[in-house]
Amino acid sequence: EEIESADMVSEFLPTFFSFIFKKYKPDIVFHLAAQALVRESYSNPVLTYETNVMGTLKVLEACRNAKVKAIVNITSDKVYENREIFQGYKETDKLGGYDPYSSSKACADILAKSYRNSYFNLKLYKNTHQTLLATCRAGNVIGGGDWAKDRLISDLVICANSNKIVSIRNPNAIRPWQHVLDALSGYLSLGQKLLEEKKEFATSWNFGSKNSITVKEVVNLSKKHWDKIDFKIFNDANQLHESTILKLNSLKANKLLKWENIWDDSV
Question: How far apart are CA 208 and CA 93, in angstroms?
Answer without folding.
Answer: 15
